[in-house]
C-alpha cells in the first residue's frame, strides 16, 4: 500500500472504503439523483449536479465525511500530499454502454488529488469501464501503465500532475458504472 | 451533376453564406465503388497519440482530389485560386477519434473532406464536428455519409474533431480523405 511508489504515477486503490451497508445506502441514493448527459470531443457520460447541493440524507453524510479533518488527515497520511480540509469538488457519474472519457491529465489550478469512489457492481475486462493510467513519455501520454476495472465500494486516488495521464475506457454492455468523484484541493 | 456551371454558382453562394457546404453523392456510382475498392488495400499505419488522435493512415495516391477538374470546382466554390492541396487519407473504426487541440487555434484555412463507407449508423459515433473555441454557438456537425464531400472555411476561432467511434460500430469503419487547400 504505497501511494508514492505506485506506477505510472502515484495512486492507490482502497478497497472496502465504507461499511457495506453504508455503501449500499449511498449507492441507492446516488441512483436517485438526476443525471445529465455530458458530451464533447473528450467524453460521453452522465453526471449529477454538484453533490454539495444534494438534499439526500445519505449523500449529505458522505459529503460531511469528505469535509472532515479525519478524511483530510487520512489522505495526507496515505499520499504525503497536504490537502485543505473541506476543499473538494464532488459529482456523481454514470457510464453506460458506449460511454467513455478519453486521455487527459486533469491538471487545473488547485487540484492536488483526484478521487473516484465506485458504487457499482464489479466490472470484468469484457464490461469495459476500466480506469487506465498511462505512462508519461516526455510530457506526452505513452503506453498504458496500469488498468483498474471498477470494483464495488473501492476508492481510487491519484496525484494530479502534468504526467497524470488517464482515461476511462468505453463501457461495453449492460452494466452501469456509477461513481462519485472529483478533486481534493 | 456538380460540374454544371449553374449548379456550381449555387453551391458557391451557399458556401459564401454558411462558410461550409455538404455535397451528397459527389462521385458517380462507378467512380465511388472504384475508389472504395482502392482504399480497401491493407497498406495502412496506426497513428495514435492518446490525448490527440487515433486512426489508421492509408497510403493512397489520390487521383480524383488532385485532378485539375477538382481544383477548378474547388476554386469556384471557395472563390480563390487553388495552388496546392495537401491530402491525408484516414480510416476510423472502433476506438478511433480525434480531439480538439490548441495547434489548430488561430489558423484560418479552407478544408475539404470526402467520406467513404459501405454503411454507417449515427449511433456508432464518428461525426465530424466544427465548433467555436468558446463552445458557444451551434457546432457544425457533419454526419458520416458515404460519397459526400464537405468543404469548410475554418475560422481562426474554430476547432474540429472526429467523435469517438464506439463498440456499436463493430468491425465497420469509414474513410476520410482530408484536404487542406492553399
Find the structural class of chain A using helix and strand composition: alpha+beta
| Oligomeric state of the chains present here | heterodimer
Low-confidence stretches of chain B: none
Counting DSSP H or I runs of 4 or more residues, the number of helices of chain A is: 3
Measure the end-to-end span of chain B.
25 Å
| Major sheet summary line of chain A | 11 strands, antiparallel
Short description:
The complex is a heterodimer of chains A (185) and B (182). Chain A is of the alpha+beta class and 185 residues long.
Written description of the protein model:
The complex is a heterodimer of chains A (185) and B (182). Chain A is of the alpha+beta class and 185 residues long. Helix content of chain A is 19%, strand content 35%. In chain A, helix 1 packs across helix 2. The two termini of chain A are 22 Å apart. The mean pLDDT of chain A is 96. The longest helix of chain B has 14 residues. Chain B is globular and about 45 Å long. At the A-B interface, strand 5 of A face strand 5 of B.
List its traits.
heterodimer; A: 185 residues; alpha+beta; 11-stranded antiparallel sheet; 3 helices; 11 strands; globular; B: 182 residues; 8-stranded antiparallel sheet; 3-stranded antiparallel sheet; 20% helix
How do the helices and strands line up, and which of them pair or pack?
The complex is a heterodimer of chains A (185) and B (182).
Chain A: E1 11-14, H1 20-32, E2 36-39, E3 43-50, H2 57-67, H3 69-79, E4 91-95, E5 100-104, E6 113-118, E7 131-137, E8 140-148, E9 155-159, E10 166-168, E11 177-184
Antiparallel strand pairs in A: 1-9, 2-3, 3-4, 3-5, 4-11, 5-10, 6-9, 6-11, 7-8, 7-10
Chain B: H1 5-18, E1 20-23, H2 29-39, E2 44-49, E3 53-58, H3 68-78, E4 85-92, E5 97-98, E6 109-116, E7 128-132, E8 140-142, E9 148-154, E10 158-162, E11 174-181
Antiparallel strand pairs in B: 1-9, 2-3, 3-4, 3-5, 4-11, 6-9, 6-11, 7-8, 7-10
Amino acid at each position: 500500500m504505497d501511494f508514492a511508489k505506485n506506477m505510472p504515477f502515484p495512486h492507490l486503490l482502497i478497497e472496502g472504503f465504507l461499511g457495506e451497508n453504508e455503501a449500499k445506502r449511498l449507492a441507492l441514493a446516488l441512483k436517485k439523483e438526476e443525471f445529465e448527459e455530458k458530451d464533447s470531443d473528450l467524453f460521453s457520460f452522465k453526471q449529477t449536479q454538484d453533490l454539495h447541493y444534494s438534499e439526500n440524507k445519505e449523500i449529505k453524510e458522505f459529503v460531511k465525511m469528505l469535509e472532515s479533518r479525519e478524511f483530510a488527515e487520512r489522505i495526507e497520511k496515505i499520499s504525503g500530499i497536504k490537502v485543505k480540509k473541506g476543499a473538494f469538488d464532488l459529482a456523481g457519474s454514470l457510464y453506460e454502454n458506449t460511454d467513455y472519457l478519453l486521455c487527459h491529465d486533469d491538471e487545473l489550478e488547485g487540484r492536488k488529488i483526484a478521487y473516484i469512489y465506485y458504487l457499482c457492481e464489479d466490472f470484468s475486462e469484457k464490461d469495459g469501464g476500466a480506469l487506465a493510467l498511462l505512462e508519461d513519455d516526455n510530457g506526452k501520454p505513452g503506453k498504458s501503465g496500469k488498468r483498474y476495472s471498477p470494483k464495488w465500494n473501492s476508492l481510487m486516488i491519484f496525484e494530479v500532475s502534468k504526467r497524470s495521464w488517464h482515461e476511462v475506457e468505453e463501457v461495453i454492455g449492460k452494466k452501469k458504472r456509477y461513481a462519485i468523484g472529483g478533486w481534493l484541493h | 451533376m456538380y460540374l454544371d456551371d449553374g449548379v456550381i454558382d449555387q453551391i458557391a453562394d451557399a458556401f459564401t453564406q454558411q462558410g461550409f457546404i455538404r455535397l451528397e453523392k459527389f462521385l458517380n456510382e462507378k467512380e465511388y465503388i472504384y475508389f472504395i475498392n482502392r482504399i480497401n488495400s491493407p497498406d495502412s499505419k496506426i497513428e495514435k497519440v492518446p490525448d490527440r488522435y487515433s486512426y489508421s493512415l492509408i497510403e493512397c495516391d489520390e487521383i480524383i482530389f488532385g485532378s485539375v477538374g477538382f481544383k477548378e470546382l474547388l476554386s469556384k466554390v471557395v472563390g480563390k485560386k487553388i495552388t496546392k492541396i495537401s491530402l491525408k487519407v484516414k480510416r476510423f473504426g472502433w476506438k478511433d477519434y480525434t480531439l480538439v487541440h490548441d495547434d489548430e487555434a488561430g489558423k484560418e484555412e479552407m478544408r475539404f473532406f470526402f467520406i467513404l463507407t459501405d454503411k454507417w449508423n449515427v449511433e456508432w459515433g464518428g461525426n465530424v464536428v466544427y465548433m467555436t473555441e468558446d463552445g458557444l454557438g451551434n457546432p457544425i456537425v457533419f454526419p458520416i455519409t458515404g460519397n459526400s464531400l464537405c468543404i469548410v472555411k475554418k475560422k481562426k476561432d474554430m476547432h474540429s474533431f472526429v467523435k469517438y467511434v464506439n463498440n456499436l460500430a463493430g468491425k465497420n469503419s469509414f474513410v476520410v480523405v482530408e484536404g487542406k487547400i492553399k
